[in-house]
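Below is how a single chain appears once it has passed through the pipeline. First comes the sequence as given, then the structure the pipeline wrote out for it. We keep one example in the README because the format questions we get most often are answered faster by looking than by reading.
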Amino acid sequence: MAVRILLSQNRSLYRLLFQPLHSQITQSHRIGLCMISACTSDLSVPAFGFRLSLFQRLSSQTIGLDPNISSAEDVNEICRVLSDFRSLHHDIESALACFSGKIFWIVFRAYCRADLPMDAIRAYKKMQDFGPNPSIDDLDKLLFMLCKRNHVKHAQEFFDDVKYKSAPSEKTYSILMRGWGEIGDSMEAWKLFDEMLERKCPIDVTAYNTLLDCLCRDGKTEEAYKLFREMGSYGFQPDACSYSIFIRAYCEANDTHSALRVLDRMRRYNLAPNVFTYNCIIKLFCKNDHVDDAYLLLDEMFENEVKPDAWSYNAILAFHCDCYEVNQALKLINRMDIDSCLPDSHTYNMVLKMLIRVGRVDRVTEVWESMERRGFYPSVSTYAVMIHGYCKKKHGLEDACRYFEMMIDEGIPPYLSTCDLLRDRLLHLGLWEKTQILAEKMRQSTSCSIQELSSSMESNKATARLRKFEREN
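Resulting structure:
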């Protein structure tokens, strides 16, 4: 009898594991899951291995937003246990005990990503059938995942249904308030804050900051500032996050004066903004042509031991590129080297696009060759910048073809729009043979995606369309 009950529970567990994946996967995966569903419930059937492999692959796609939820290693280990402990005499319950609820967190994530909030809630309710009752931590994770996918109403309704069965924490309320803030409903966030006070739930600075952020996101900055002033009377001192919320709000409103006023106040209290807040102000400065002030903020970040990231420099770099300030742009990239900040694809794409436009081919080559030295290898977007840029330049078609061939040699599938642009440019100049050479090179690639794109390079329809255009003109 005990074996039969355990087997029944295991089968239920397997159904629970695999059902959430139906609506979020591709058609080929759906076919695979339909085949799985048609299999017998015998745990030793050959199809079980395929089923586990599919679960492992799909579950790994649900991991990444919250490192506390699970990891790829957990998924691999769970799948190993389920694969090895298939016989009735195996103690699978003990083998899975160390994961205590992590299968379920993966299921929550899978359902939420598939936009099936009610099924995620159903999985939560099923937890008690396979072990201890869900904890507040489990509830927080479910609510977080629901809110992350903007299923805030479902999260709130479920919370209202269970909040009197176990005492929610301030973290629970903060998750829900932040969820309402993300969709711009500060009234619901206020209601939750008031409920915290009524239920005498511990209030901390994080709860205040969450509500401040909700109000600012909803455009109610004055109301948020009133709450900010009241924090002290309740024994709470605003922290760096409290001030940063207002700075970001003023930056969004393009209000430089107010943003700097808050920043000066932070300086007086020896509170340093984080890199994201600094980046907002730098971008605001550049937007309003105060690039010198943006550079001063970069220096201040180092003084406050806040290391700038690529976006800090890219905001200033965008200003130089828009103004075609070649020397300043290249100096900034050199400064990134000095400051030990690696340029990213956005950095190179902006600079290369500008250099091609102004005809500084020598500098284009210099920047391109410096990428490998910095440990950066161009992606499809960077190659597209080069090819599209040279296609639009007089006498630049040869260089466009050269970079296209480099891309194919690297095994990087080009954008379809890149193939179309290069092909049409070649045909327009009567270089039909070159399109055939490129198409043949693509067919010989080891990349299936590149092989499939080869037909677009030698499209007969494109040739006919071009010839018709030439006849009519």
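The chain has 27 helices and no strands.

See the next section for the split statistics.
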